[in-house]
Amino acid sequence: MSFRIQKEARQESMLLNMGPSHPAMHGTIRIMLELDGERILNAELEVGYLHRGFEKTCENRTYFNLLPYTDRLNYVSPLINNLGYVMTLEKMLGLQVPEHAQYIRVIMSELSRISDHLTCLAAMAMECGAFTVFLYKIKAREFIWDFIERTTGARMTTSYVRIGGVRANLHEGWREDLIKAIQETRTVLKDVHALLDKNKIFLNRTRDIAVVSPEMAINYGWTGPCLRSTGVYYDVRKAHPYLVYDQLEFEVPLGERGDNYDRYMVRMLEMEQSLRLIEQAMDKLPDRSPAQELNLEGIEPAEAIKISRRKKPGQKIKLSPNLEGMEKENYPLILANDPRYIMPPKEDVYTTIEGLIRHFKYFMKGHGIRPPKGEVYFSVEGGNGELGYYIVSDGTDKPYRLHLRAPCFHIVSALEEMILGHYIADVIPTFGSLNMIGGELDR
Amino acid sequence: MAMEKQIVLKDLQEKFGSEISKTDLQFGDDILHIKKEALIPIVNFLRQAPYEFTMLLDLTCVDYLGEEDRFEMVYHLFSLKNNLRLRIKTRLKESDLKIDSITSVWKNANWLEREVYDMFGVEFEGHPYLKRIFMYDGFEGFPLRKDYPLRKRQPRLPLK
User: Is the dihedral of CA A128, A131, A134, A140 positive or negative?
Assistant: First the structure.
């Protein structure tokens, strides 16, 4: 085993190994440094410690079954990963998603974006010594995740965005929860601005460190906040609008110098825009009507099945609390009206033979979602940048090839060049500002 | 003013008529099938004004096991100025699994080509450091090829 850096190493310099289990190497990544004193002469990155064959696995799963694997790509903003995959498939199938579900998707993806940026900046600040900032930001993230948990039932691996819509309607009392989360996040952002923006220590570690020019950023295929920190105006939400982003008002913050501080600042400002987006989407969504409430009274499913052998039960069916928000009354709001591609409501599955057949056809191998032959590329604005899926379909119920354009793969590939000539201590905030996520990078 | 994609495709046809085997449109995405020798001239042409496809969005490979030209290289280009995406595809034979590297044109091609080499075994001529990126040295075979079994295990390498 020989690395480029080992072959090139000089006698008067020193080789230093950072990672793969270094506390500042967020996921697992190894940086080999060739040093002259503390100055970096040469660097080489080794990735792949978290490689788990995502693409190979997807080729062997049906389109519905592979959805949970997309949660585990960028595990800080799983909802955007779900969304990217599902929307790629919807582009192939030509599904029309109800407006209500589109606004829910906007809320969920913006919440994920905030939690992604919060985590990135929290870690970056902590590594620069600002532990208070870390605690504040993780506190704000907790409110966001509480909201996500109450609706989706999970904190990180949500699998909430489904083909044709979302899994369930928002939970009861969601508006109050969301308003609280927004308020808490606003307070935290204000505090963090006060703590860091003009902090001498933080400025020394970030200002004019690892400056990236717009040309270099484009040449490396950077997207997202990192590209925008260099002053290039490109946001997938503006350039190729999806969902209802073209009907909502928001700005795209840009940096000037492309250094660590700009990458921090762009993320901070972007969170404010995301909060704005959530508030606008919130106003478009009606409160839940009593008909959509969870039905705790009624006959047991087993009894309903028994009755339905002879006649229609004609009574409400008591569903498991896990199914809250996906009762039949919610279906027109949350899922597209196309029986070929969406799961039938549980009430139908329990009481009608047609529903039962549809249910089995949906999940049986070889019978599920079968998109037309062809290939498609679609991308959404993820936490790190353009998150694109390239799917090749051969007409069966499994993708022939699924490739993920991971934004941080492109961003991290520039790190070797960015840290040249800087000190070892600069590696840490530089690496932190790139927001490397192992699950997405190594796939 | 933003340029229409029809103009880009027309200009390409005029300049590289014999190198382009066909153009295609699938689900609204434009696809350009080219001969593999023409890859570098075409991407260099597209990078210039007025087309300015300055960004390499993605680079990957698809394995069509059983077909004569087994591997298909897929390049996604993006023009920031004109807000256009273009997909360029070229086929490779298994017996001659080599293609020119585009690392001299885009820097992120370095890692992307390493990934394709790692997963499919495609050799990139002119790549500065063609080495496995996700799998370890000593891994045998190419995992994303269709003839690599899903559950195949390989023995652990001894510690040195």
Answer: negative
Determine the pLDDT at residue A293: 63
Residue A136: partners with Cβ closer than 8 Å, 6 or more residues away: A188, A191, A192, A195
With beta carbons less than 8 A apart as the criterion, state whether B87 and B31 touch: yes
Distances (CA, A) of A398 to A157, A391, B62: 22, 10, 15
CATH (residue range A54-287+371-442):
1.10.645.10
% pLDDT > 90, chain B? 21
Question: Does the residue B69 lie in any domain?
Answer: yes
Question: Mind telling me how many Å the CA of A142 is from chain B's nearest CA?
Answer: 33
Q: Is residue B150 included in any domain, yes or no? A: no
Number of domains in chain B: 1
Residue B137 covered by a domain? no
Interface test with B, best of A219, A246, A416 (most B CBs within 10 A): A219
Mutate to test the interface with A, among B5, B107, B120, B130 (most CBs of A within 10 A): B107
Whether residue B82 is contained in a domain is answered as: yes
Residue A295 has pLDDT above 70, yes or no: no
Domain residues for the domain of B26 are: 15-102
First and final C-alpha spacing in chain B? 60
Is pLDDT at A281 greater than 50 in this prediction? yes
DSSP state of A256: S
For B114-129, write each residue's pLDDT tens digit. 999 999 989 998 888 8
The domain limits of chain A are 54-287+371-442, 290-320+340-363
Instruction: Please give the single-letter amino acid code of residue A383.
Output: G
Tell me the nearest-neighbour CA distance from B124 into chain A, angstroms.
Answer: 18
* Distant-in-sequence, close-in-space partners of A228: CB < 8 Å, separation ≥ 6: A234, A235, A252, A253, A254, A255, A266
Q: From B112, B48, B16, select the one nearest A404 (Cα to Cα).
A: B112
Asked if B83 reaches chain A (Cβ–Cβ under 8 Å), the answer is yes
DSSP structure string for A378-419: EEEE-SSSEEEEEEEE-SSSSEEEEEEE-HHHHHHTTHHHHT
> Which CATH number characterizes residue B51's domain?
3.30.460.80
